[in-house]
Amino acid sequence: YKRITVKSLVEMKQNGEKISMLTAYDYSMAKIVDAANIDAILVGDSASNVMAGHETTLPITLDQMIYHASSVVRAAKRALVVVDIPFGSYQSDSKEALRSAIRIMKESGAHAIKVEGGSEIKESVSRILQAGIPVMGHLGLTPQSIYKFGTYTVRAKEEEEAQKLKDDAKLLEELGCFAIVLEKIPAKLAKEVAESVSIPIIGIGAGGHVDGQVLVVHDMLGMTHEFHPRFLRRYLDLYDEMSKAVSQYVNDVKSKDFPNEEESY
Ligand code: KIV
Ligand code: NA
């Protein structure tokens, strides 16, 4: 395999090749995603929702993110592995942010980290970059700030917030980030941002005029089924498929159909 690097992603933007990214939080899923030639795997703090059942991304800890990330790193032979730096591990000051980023890189073997926010966290972003750790930004709907927003609706529909987002994207590029995720913002604004910076813009609910797309893998496989935002395309209905399989197993055990002679020693 030719390993995808942060440089490869920037080159893809230059060549007009769209970047594919999905989340994964564990070894088995990451193996499937990596073998299917995904460009980048995000060990998202959405693990807090998807894996642990929390309502928000806020409760997941740095240790838990490192556990998920190290499992994914062991599976990924080709994809770039990017890890979310979790809420509470980088906001206090830039030294704490660097310490957290170093722990992720050292203890998981991941290739880059992702942070939420713009000008508010610029010292932390600079410090992490100075240590040689590649940083992906994340603007628009930033779930770690959900209690500030109050809802998960589309962000930056008003001029003031749109302007701040554009300024933040420029700032993250100037600081040296290698890419930016834009979540749930108008397609027109995302297009403007993608055209105004030379680093790749990876969208989720940000339309098609950006440099790549990311989705939560459990959502696109239809394993989660109480989440129906417009931006989500479901490629499977795994929730139903898996439910049927488990029910069948329960029935087979109860009815003594399983195991049969061939399945016995
Ligand atoms: O945690 C996550 O899954 C994310 C993506 C939705 C971008 O940050
Ligand atoms: Na995230």
Automatic annotation (TrEMBL):
Q: What is its main location?
A: cytoplasm
- Where, in this chain's numbering, is 3-methyl-2-oxobutanoate bound? 45-46, 84, 114
Free-text comment on the cofactor: Binds 1 Mg(2+) ion per subunit.
**Is DNA repair given among the entry's keywords?**
no
Gene Ontology MF terms in the entry: 3-methyl-2-oxobutanoate hydroxymethyltransferase activity; magnesium ion binding; methyltransferase activity
GO CC, sorted alphabetically, is: cytoplasm
Q: Kindly tell me the pathway this chain contributes to.
A: Cofactor biosynthesis; (R)-pantothenate biosynthesis; (R)-pantoate from 3-methyl-2-oxobutanoate: step 1/2
Q: Which CDD domains match?
A: KPHMT-like (cd06557)
Q: Report any one BP term from Gene Ontology.
A: methylation
State one Pfam family annotation. Pantoate_transf
Q: Can you tell me which residues bind Mg(2+)? A: 45, 84, 116
**The protein's enzyme class:** transferase
Required cofactor names = Mg(2+)
Report the domain of life of the source organism. Answer: Bacteria
Catalytic activity, per the record?
Answer: (6R)-5,10-methylene-5,6,7,8-tetrahydrofolate + 3-methyl-2-oxobutanoate + H2O = 2-dehydropantoate + (6S)-5,6,7,8-tetrahydrofolate
- Please list the residues that make up the active site: 183 (proton acceptor)
| Record's subcellular location | Cytoplasm
Q: Which UniProt keywords apply?
A: Cytoplasm, Magnesium, Metal-binding, Pantothenate biosynthesis, Transferase
Q: What is known about its subunit structure?
A: Homodecamer; pentamer of dimers.
**What's its job?**
Catalyzes the reversible reaction in which hydroxymethyl group from 5,10-methylenetetrahydrofolate is transferred onto alpha-ketoisovalerate to form ketopantoate.
Q: PANTHER family, alphabetically?
A: 3-METHYL-2-OXOBUTANOATE HYDROXYMETHYLTRANSFERASE
**Name of this chain's protein:** 3-methyl-2-oxobutanoate hydroxymethyltransferase
